[in-house]
Design brief:
about 375 residues; mainly alpha; 14 helices
Length: about 375
């Protein structure tokens, strides 16, 4: 009888319940796991100690990614039986690999080369076994359909770029987690419109896992960081959402966002990509050093230098990014090159305006040229 029910079960008819149940399971697992993770981190001294480039003081547990991983895996394993199990379980396998890579880096030290190889492997697995790849850019820069190998290489590049973008911005309380939550909600709404229930349920699991973590990440008493484990897992899932969204928009003539999906995806990821491109330019061109060598030239560090608190930095960045997402949705009927121009101009002006406003407001403080790079 149960087998007959499962065979005749249509997830689209119960999408609301599936999203709620998955999110609830993920939320409960997250809430229950964090106290134990914090206790183990403190007992075994698995802490992130402050140094000259840290934006915090003292020792803070940096194993928040363990709770994120457990919550998503348990929730999807329970509800995934009635969904697209091949794609979902492949995603679970991929984040498991990233989990162990990140955990080793959080506890010991993992070289950037080994992390890059792991990221390349999980991206390749997604493309090879599901054929989910970016096949075109809706006519942006005259790119409609890319050759297969170019499509694969470009998708690999996008996946690794997004993973590292979220890894790099994880330097201020709540920033990476809140931007990941904003991106997940945005993609969840899109996939709900596309009837892509598997991706919507995955988005629900991510939201359920993130909410308890963000409470602790902003907390002063039981503070916890994502660590490389959490930031890489979240970056990979959002990269999957991005690739899946652009792919789904390109393969069907009736998709709502067929003529705007690359620009909407760019709007959703605007700040992580802006900061990553900026920091790579500073490290490679100005300072002539490895782009993976840590420093304090991130935009969030500059906000902190101007006197903003962690909560204010996160709020400003997330609000501006949300405005850009709404703007991209409203402009989706324009020519795609005009959409891109509007997004880049307004996005750059909004983030630059935050610096200009506060700089004019505090004229007595002198900043060196190096500090303002």
């Amino acid at each position: 009888m149960i087998k007959e029910l499962l065979d005749n079960f249509n997830p689209l008819e119960y999408s609301g319940w599936l999203i709620f149940i998955t999110g609830f399971i993920s939320f409960v697992v997250s809430v229950m796991s964090y106290p134990a993770i914090i206790n183990v981190a403190k007992a075994k001294n698995l802490m992130d100690d402050s140094d000259e480039r840290s934006s915090h003081t003292g020792k803070i547990p940096n194993l928040g990614g363990i709770g994120i991983y457990l919550s998503i895996v348990i929730a999807i394993t329970i509800t995934g039986a009635v969904l697209d199990t091949k794609r979902l379980f492949l995603i679970l396998g991929s984040i498991t690999l990233l989990f162990f890579l990140g955990l080793k880096d959080d506890i010991l030290i993992l070289s950037p080369r080994k992390k890059f190889i792991g990221q390349l492997l999980v991206a390749a697995l997604l493309i090879v076994f599901t054929d989910t790849r970016i096949i075109g850019l809706s006519g942006l820069f005259a790119v409609t359909i890319m050759p297969y190998y170019l499509s694969v290489l470009f998708t690999l590049f996008v996946c690794i770029l997004v993973i590292n973008a979220f890894n790099l911005i994880d330097g201020v309380d709540g920033l990476a987690g809140t931007l990941a939550l904003l991106a997940t909600i945005s993609y969840g709404i899109i996939f709900y419109q596309y009837d892509d229930i598997s991706m919507v349920v995955l988005a629900g699991a991510v939201c359920g896992a993130l909410l308890p973590f963000l409470y602790l990440n902003f907390s002063k008493r039981n503070k916890m960081f994502l660590g490389d484990t959490g930031s890489m897992i979240l970056g990979f899932i959002i990269a999957v959402f991005t690739i899946r969204f652009i792919h789904s928009s390109e393969v069907s003539l009736t998709r709502v966002y067929r003529e705007s999906s690359p620009v909407i995806a760019l709007a959703i990821l605007f700040f992580p990509l802006l900061d990553t491109i900026r920091i790579f330019f500073i490290r490679l061109v100005i300072h002539k050093k490895s782009p993976f060598m840590a420093d304090k030239n991130h935009l969030h560090h500059k906000f902190l230098n101007f006197g903003f608190s962690h909560i204010k930095v996160t709020t400003i960045i997330v609000v501006v990014n949300a405005i850009l997402i709404v703007l991209a949705f409203f402009c989706r009927h324009y020519d795609i090159h005009l959409q891109l121009a509007i997004l880049l101009i307004i996005g750059t002006c909004l983030y630059s305006g935050c610096f200009c406003y506060y700089w004019l407001k505090t004229p007595k403080k002198e900043y060196s040229t190096k500090e303002l790079n």
